[in-house]
């Protein structure tokens, strides 16, 4: 794959990176990434992956832009309130990099469509805010052997992890917590979305290009109020019904 003069200029700061360079840029341009959720995590991740030159990005979200989104989901404009989140996010991505192919699915992910929609991609970023969808995405990625980057946030803290095989996200969260928190319930500081979404994009770039050490089997936790970050290991659960081999299809 050869780069045009425009592409060499556009990606010049990445092409000179010793751990990425031309081969890494080619991998980015040939990659297919699926982003589930165009909100606080998925939006910034989508913008940075488009800017980085990921060649094929699919967006899945069944929601429309709301006024309450705008303090943290800065890929949207006030004039886009009421628009499909996938359409508005795709427009922002194409404004940054018209070379990227962006595909939109304006619908919720469910057990029937998840295997089909995930199967044609090299990597999935999960930026959703409910555990049922998170577990569905993880279970499907385990079944299809697709790398997963998962990001979450709430209040003043966020987390990012990479899951490829074992351990999987279900090893971390076996079932839907009875007291599951959402941003709507507990709130979230807007700038945190940019931190976590950017981290998710960075981990995706590392997985695609083979650069550095992705957060495989580890969870990076960022505490915004204290300006502290720590990384914890995730132990494989021998009884996990996903990566333990007992899950026949996503639930």
Number of helices: 10
Looking at this structure, what is the CATH superfamily? Answer: NAD(P)-binding Rossmann-like Domain
Sheet bearing the most strands, described? 8 strands, mixed
Strand residues, percent: 15-25%
> What structural class is derived from the secondary structure elements?
alpha/beta
SS elements, strand count: 8
Q: How far apart are the first and last residues' alpha carbons, in Å?
A: 40 Å
For the record, the count of structural domains works out to: 1
CATH architecture: 3-Layer(aba) Sandwich
Low-confidence stretches: 246-251
- CATH topology: the name is Rossmann fold
Mean pLDDT: 93
User: From N to C, what is the helix and strand string?
Assistant: HHHEHEHEHEHEEHHHEE
CATH class group: Alpha Beta
Strand order of the largest sheet: 3-2-1-4-5-6-7-8
Radius of gyration: 17 Å
Shape: globular
In percent, how helical is the residue content? 25-40%
Short description:
With 251 residues, the chain is α/β, with parallel strands linked by helices. Helix content is 36%, strand content 18%. It has a single domain (11-233), classed as NAD(P)-binding Rossmann-like Domain (Rossmann fold), CATH 3.40.50.720.
């Amino acid at each position: 794959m050869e780069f045009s003069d425009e592409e060499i200029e556009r990606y010049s700061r990445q092409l000179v990176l010793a751990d990425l360079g031309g081969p890494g840029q080619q991998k980015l341009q040939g990659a297919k990434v699926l982003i589930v959720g165009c909100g606080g995590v998925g939006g910034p991740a989508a913008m940075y992956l488009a800017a980085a030159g990921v060649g094929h990005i699919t967006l899945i979200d069944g929601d429309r832009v709301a006024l309450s989104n705008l303090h943290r989901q800065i890929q949207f404009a006030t004039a886009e309130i009421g628009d499909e989140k996938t359409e508005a996010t795709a427009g922002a991505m194409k404004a940054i990099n018209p070379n990227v192919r962006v595909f939109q699915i304006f619908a919720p992910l469910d057990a029937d469509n998840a295997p089909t929609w995930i199967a044609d991609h090299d990597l999935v970023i999960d930026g959703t805010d409910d555990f049922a969808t998170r577990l569905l995405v993880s279970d499907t990625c385990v079944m299809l052997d697709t790398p997963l980057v998962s990001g979450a946030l709430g209040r003043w803290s966020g987390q990012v992890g990479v899951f490829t095989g074992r351990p999987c996200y279900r090893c971390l969260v076996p079932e839907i917590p009875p007291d599951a928190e959402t941003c709507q319930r507990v709130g979230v500081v807007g700038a945190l979305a940019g931190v976590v979404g950017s981290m998710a994009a960075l981990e995706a770039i590392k997985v695609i290009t083979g650069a550095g050490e992705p957060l495989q089997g580890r969870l990076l936790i960022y505490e915004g109020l204290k300006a502290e970050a720590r990384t914890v290991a995730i132990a494989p659960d021998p009884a996990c019904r996903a990566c333990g081999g007992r899950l026949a299809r996503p639930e």
